[in-house]
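REQUEST ID: PR-0412
SUBMITTED BY: lab tech R.K.
PRIORITY: routine
TASK: structure prediction, single protein chain
INPUT:
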Amino acid sequence: MATLFHSVHTRAAGKIARRNAAKVFCSTQMPPSQSTIKVVIIGATKEIGRTAIAAVSKARGMELAGAIDSQGIGLDAGEISGMEEPLEIPVLNDLTMVLGSIAQSRATGVMVDFSEPSTVYDNVKQAAAFGLSSVVYVPKIELATVTELSAFCEKASMGCLVAPTLSIGSVLLQQAAIQASFHYNNVEIVESRPNPSDLPSQDAMQIANNISDLGQIYNREDMDSDNPARGQILGEDGVRVHSMVLPGLASSTSINFSGPGED
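STATUS: complete
OUTPUT:
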């Protein structure tokens, strides 16, 4: 028996999608490289946005060019991110103005979107119009939106990355699960979360996506079982998930593989 385990932060879940729809998509054609990449962050006042502002400001070869949000307008991006010195870049609610400024300077730029599923498409479309590629991390984004973005970016010959997770540990767990899935016929995902909202989790759904459509049918012995104790089946290949919800329980995800003789 093999068990892969990763402690995670709670994330919102989205609809299960086919494996090839939740990865990197769109054309990888990029603007000519320059010494400094100007970065626009949407969702700047969110915790992840503030963290990104601090990281970009400290990174070599990057420069924060804009902090966009509908809240905290006028506040300094550095101050809301807990930096020692202000960045003299105010939080704005005018994405078009910031993108236009970057395009006018002919600098290489990228838009990082932490906003909401309802605004992602328009944001990426605006960025592409001004020659900027996009990185999107928006939980609960619908597969239909990802498909629309893929078609638009391909037509516009612009790069775009939709990241299902920003956790290195989670990505490594998912890659290890893909490798293990070729050697086992039985798999169960067990996750723990402190509250019952949005279960199964984004991590569980992404793992199920990754190990599905590989020509493998899991848990054949009781694929048709409707016993609630056997957990929920994700997708069509028999991957089962069990979710534990206990107050104060640390969020984690484990993948259990097994087969005959694996005692």
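NOTES: Residues 143-156 form the longest helix (14 residues).
REVIEWED BY: pending
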